[in-house]
Amino acid sequence: MESGEIIPLTAEQSERLAVLFDAYGDRLVRFAYSRLSGTRMGNGEAWALAEDVVQSMWVRVARSGATDVLGHPEWSETEIRKVLFVRVKREIAEHFALMRSSETAVDWTEPATCNTLCPLLPNQCAWVDLPDYLARMVASLPEREREALLLKLDGMPHTAMGERLGCSASTADRLAKTAILLLQIDNPELSCSPVAMESLPEWEQRALAAQSPAQREVLLRLDDVARGALLLSGEAPTRDIAQRLGVSRERVMGATVCAPVLRALGAEDMERAA
Questions:
Q1: What angle do CA 209, 140, 229 make, to 5 degrees?
Q2: Which InterPro entries does this UniProt record tie to the protein (predicted)?
Q3: Is 130 part of any domain?
């Protein structure tokens, strides 16, 4: 917080901020300390930094006013807790990102280097916290899917995501999941190890055999629902696919929208997937 800065809050927002601080202040500091105490810094230094990052988080919440937790009294305790704890992880990540910027240059475009040297960056983090190689992958996503994914990674509840995106909560969640699937299709290294083709049901084996090697390689890395929905895409309505797979129609729609990306895979993609 800048010296002399006065953050304009309504009486209701000030009261809500005080309530949240009383309920979560100490817990957030202990959480931040638990994230920092495993580093090489001493316990005293880790505790002092934990207090600083949590204070910085509260300042950001206050500055955001009605656009953040202060403006959503209808959020449940679970939703509020998730948002606040994710924000603390972001503050820690930004602290270490600033430290990196003043040190010897490192090739942050290399995944192995980035994953080794960024242990404090949270798995669920917003755009600013993503390692460079992941940020480039996310940047290539369609706009709505990318925005939904970043909102979800920032800990925003589905209802608030929908309000921001101008859609329902379920659609917002589907857009975020579609973004993840698009990333997995285009970047196989983000997916699981491929399953053995012979371990799958006969209909899947036949459908996979009809795919190109690149498409088959990607499909074998996806989860059962995504793989099944993509294999059945175009052959039946999404409602029928959902019934056959025993999942919701929303989940099927989130997968089948990725079918054009899968069909576009070529030989170059096959080499990268291998």
A1: 35
A2: RNA_pol_sigma70_r4_t2, RNA_pol_sigma_r3/r4-like, WH-like_DNA-bd_sf
A3: no
Residues 115 and 20 placed together within one structural domain of the fold: yes
* Residue 264: inside a domain: yes
CB under 8 Å to 162, separation ≥6 — which residues?
168, 169, 170, 171, 172
Residue 98 predicted with pLDDT over 60: no
Does this model's pTM top 0.70?
no
Range of the domain at 87: 1-119
Strands (E), the chain: none
Number of domains making up the chain: 2
Q: In whole angstroms, what is the distance from residue 16 CA to residue 256 CA?
A: 43
Phi-psi region of 108 (alpha: psi -120 to 50; beta: other; left: phi over 0): alpha
CA distance 120 to 93: 6
How do residues 121-165 score in pLDDT, each as one tens digit? Answer: 333 333 345 556 666 777 778 888 888 888 787 777 888 888 888
For residue 223, is it within any domain?
yes
Question: Measured in Å, how far apart are the chain's first and last C-alpha atoms?
Answer: 49
44-83 residue pLDDT tens: 888 888 899 999 888 888 887 766 778 778 888 888 888 8
Picking from 101, 119, 137, the residue at the C-terminal end of a domain is 119
